[in-house]
Amino acid sequence: MKIEAPKIPTDLPSRNFHDILYEEDLELEMCQIQQSIFDDEVLNKVRLSKMVLKNCKFINTDFSGMELTDVIFENCDFSNAKLSSSSIHKCQFSNCKLLGVDFTDSRFGNVQFTDSLLNLAAFGSSKLEKIRFQDSPVESADFYDCIFKKVEFKKCTMDGANFERTSLNGVDISTSTFQSLMVSPTDLKGCKVSTYQAIQFSALLGLEIID
């Protein structure tokens, strides 16, 4: 699956995330931000585009209604942040901490999560298209009532993830690992799994496999 990468200019000027407080339209673009700490804040409908953020912290911050386009996050901490009802397109999260993040009712397109922690993250009622989770734990993450189109979980730990009322048709989880998932048999139709996972699902469905 080809995912469209963020289009970001070179030689970006440096800014601090607190600069957004002085922007009338709460928008930052065409810049790079490093080492900013913006914890426990409430700032809704922020717009970020064509920029790079490195080593920043946004713990417990409420970013509801955020719009992200062509943005790269590296080594950023969004633990327990709120990004519900957000629009996230052509973005990359690399080595980020997204523990318990609230992404409910959001729209994702061409997004990559790589080496990022997504345990307990909530994606409920979101639409995800052309999304790759790579080497990123999603244990006990909530994907309840989501719409998936071209979604991959590559080498992720997924134990306890909730996919109730979410069709996994065409979704590739074959290289990932789990002990159990919350998913209905009808929603498993068309899911791409390994032979071992097929045996696991058979057990979850109460089938007795006889050699």
Automatic annotation (TrEMBL):
InterPro entries hit by this protein: 5peptide_repeat (IPR001646), PA_immunity-related (IPR052949)
Q: Where would one find the signal peptide in this protein? A: none
Mind telling me which residue stretches traverse the membrane in this protein? none
Pfam family name, one: Pentapeptide_4
What's the protein called, per UniProt? Pentapeptide repeat-containing protein
Organism the protein comes from: Niallia alba
